Amino acid sequence: MAEVISMADIEASAARIGIDLSSINLDSIQLPPGEDFGIQSGDDGDLYQDDPLEFEGGFGNIIVVDNLPVVPPEKFEKLEGVIRKIYSQIGTIREGGIWMPVSPDTQKTLGYCFIEYNTAQEAELAREKTNGYKLDKSHIFAVNVLDDFEKYMKVPEEWKASEIKPYMPGENLQQWLTDEKARDQFVIRAGSNTEVFWNDPRQLMPELVHQRQYWTESFVQWSPLGTYLATVHRQGAAVWGGASTFNRLMRFAHPQVRQIDFSPSEKYIITYSSHEPSNPRDSHRIVINIFDVRTGKLMRDFKGNVDEFATGGSGGVSGISWPVFRWGGGREDKYFARIGKNVIAVYETETFTLVDKKSMKVDNVVDFSWSPTDPILALFVPEQGGGNQPARVSLVQIPGKEELRQKNLFSVSDCKVYWQNNGEYLAVKVDRYTKTKKSTYTGFELFRIKERDIPIEVLELDNKNDKIIAFAWEPKGHRFAVIHGDGPRPDISFYSMRTSQNTGRVSKLMTLKSKQANALYWSPAGRYILLAGLKGFNGQLEFYNVDELETMATGEHFMATDIEWDPTGRYVATAVTSVHEMENGFHIWSFNGKLLYRISRDHFYQFLWRPRPPSLLTTEKEEEIAKNLKKYSKKYEAEDQDVSMQLNEQDRKKRKMLQDQWNEWVAKWKQWHEEERQFRIQLRDGEASDEEEEYEAKEVEVEEVLDVSEEIVADQD
């Protein structure tokens, strides 16, 4: 292995030969198995230093198939043909890659064989698919990768009790929630640095908590409740936690991991990788692992070709819609599911097997989504038979797989589902063809999930031909917003599923005309919404109070690419990431649109608020606090006044410092001016004064010969 060198040496070498490392996509670099060429991992190179096994061995592409029939020489060819037929369907077997040892005494086979594939991935897939394969009643295959035998040989002959390590209490992973100033944390990635900060709006600047260089090799991700910060490395993923120390808590071995996803209550983490085949005609191989976050135990893995995971959905990684598995059942982490061809495979986490041991058959299903709070699936099936069989949206209860509600939809072009975060409502945006089939129009099917028989209401815009640009439910509320229109300045309409006049019908509250907005960002606490104009609108911002139906403030963050509210709804961050070469960094705003501070960072990649777990207060207690807010706010008003006085004192000190710097600069120039006085007098021919008004102006006539010419004059005589 190459000698380990520091990143500083690499950067110095790159600068010496004129290479800009920031312009290089390091993720595209593929290293040979087991080699890192001295490039240290972002985890200080010790992510897996305690792991006894190596991921890539010398015989990882060879499998051993045991429990084969013992046959005489005349049946060798037939047995080899059977084995080749079974195993060549899984991968490419090398020439001469099947070897069946024979007994020197009987000349019969010994009941096992070796099979050599082109790649270790093919060998692993063969082991997975054929271990336990029943050739006949007497011969059930036992398949292992040859590299595994070295591990088995190291098992000691005699049992030895494990060493019991003394209990060492760990750091309280929720301690950051007890911050006396009730601040929130956020993480940013810029260049090679990853930094965690407190948001301190009182001081009009963030406070650094923790920072590391090369902490991750691609991205970072908070867990849904904010307990863990996940990082991604060549060898796998790792999670870190705490208020300020961010010690590593667990690691998850998964070479070449590309994506990760947590379950809603952080019990499990899913890791994903895609591997190129050795044969260009073959498809990519997908590996998905599900780990227990606290113990690091592998609970279940899924492996196969990309075609097995690419059915349904849209977008994603290497043809895969991410996340492949979607979690359901609310915060209990009880179910997860993925879509397949004509099926929805629903698994339960008690055994990590299919519910009722079989997938749910749904012909032609193309998409599904879980209720955020209940084990209810919303399924979408498009039209079939040229429109003879209508499209439909179905609500299915898990684990009983009982259909709670179904709605048939006709002339459907496309369909998209939006759950309200409390699971009370479901909006289905339906794009329908006109009678001529030359254009489409859009409407909404609104499901009231918590009401008896789940009533459905149809909503069409005043101009049903308007294009729907964005839709968003109000968190913890009954309202939603829609951006619609075909012009360069669309309209924004607000609706409510429940008003004092109409408790069971949707009502329009207001339409804002001609707005520079194409994205909607509700505060997590509801009531306030940020109307944002990204991309073509160059970062136009409007902070709107939906309770009062009035604009609180407008602003601009030029070229903004990302917007994210903090989990309490008090502050919002806007960011310009490295998709733009200039103006990289982020701004922090108050909920009512006041710009608090700006931070610039070159090569800015990520800004993520640290999520908070749900409040432990009951709804009644929260309402009581809201009613008596003045009583509770007295303490914080006094603190705010103290901070304001501190800021005023800081401003006074800053102004005094600037004044002192100015006075020092003036005194220095006066000193230089005096030191050069004699030189100036000399330049003025002895005149002593520097004041212009003390001089007397004199006019001096100077005769100057401009030209001389000679002319010969002829003599008149």
Automatic annotation (TrEMBL):
Q: Oligomeric state and partners?
A: Component of the eukaryotic translation initiation factor 3 (eIF-3) complex.
Sequence similarity:
Belongs to the eIF-3 subunit B family.
Cellular location of this protein? Cytoplasm
Gene Ontology terms, MF aspect: RNA binding; translation initiation factor activity; translation initiation factor binding
Q: What does this protein do?
A: RNA-binding component of the eukaryotic translation initiation factor 3 (eIF-3) complex, which is involved in protein synthesis of a specialized repertoire of mRNAs and, together with other initiation factors, stimulates binding of mRNA and methionyl-tRNAi to the 40S ribosome. The eIF-3 complex specifically targets and initiates translation of a subset of mRNAs involved in cell proliferation. Component of the eukaryotic translation initiation factor 3 (eIF-3) complex, which is involved in protein synthesis and, together with other initiation factors, stimulates binding of mRNA and methionyl-tRNAi to the 40S ribosome.
Q: Which residues form the RRM domain?
A: 61-148
* Top-level taxonomic group: Eukaryota
Taxonomic source organism: Zingiber officinale (Ginger)
- Give yes or no: UniProt keyword RNA-binding: yes
Protein name, as recorded:
Eukaryotic translation initiation factor 3 subunit B
PANTHER family per record: EUKARYOTIC TRANSLATION INITIATION FACTOR 3 EIF3 -RELATED (PTHR14068), EUKARYOTIC TRANSLATION INITIATION FACTOR 3 SUBUNIT B (PTHR14068:SF0)
Give the record's keywords alphabetically.
Answer: Cytoplasm, Initiation factor, Protein biosynthesis, RNA-binding
Q: Which InterPro entries match?
A: EIF3B (IPR011400), eIF3B_RRM (IPR034363), RRM_dom (IPR000504), TIF_beta_prop-like (IPR013979)
One GO biological process term is: formation of cytoplasmic translation initiation complex
GO terms under cellular component: eukaryotic 43S preinitiation complex; eukaryotic 48S preinitiation complex; eukaryotic translation initiation factor 3 complex
